[in-house]
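Bumping with the actual sequence this time:
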Amino acid sequence: MGVGGRRGVASEINVTPMIDALLVLLVIFMGVQQGLARGVGVQVPAPESERGPAQPVESFVLEVEPGGRYLLNRQPVAPGRPRAALAGVFAERPRKVLFVKGGEALTCAEVAAAVDASRAAGVVIVGLVPRATGTGG
């Protein structure tokens, strides 16, 4: 509407329908984004009331050495039998966690074989012990 001047067809664009459509699309995309959200699986310890009597936590470390030798907590394992030794150790334990430590001159395949043997023996969680990379000075 103008005061005075010519009367005729206004050539202004009506943006209200375009803004309405944009808001509807925004709401739709926000809803879809919530449905696509993925979480990360974590292990949460049980509350104190659900735990049994406190047991000393004993860590097990399987050291892999060149030549197919294995040490479980610095005790030698029968040659070529890490699976049987691990199965015997972890059979009655509720916490089945093992750390694998590889020697300096090992290949990745030798360490992977130790991890595979531990998983086959019933170990649920296998952790790899990193090498110390300090310069010593």
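The tokens above came from a reply further down the thread. The beta strands are 61-65, 69-72, 75-76, 97-102, 125-128.
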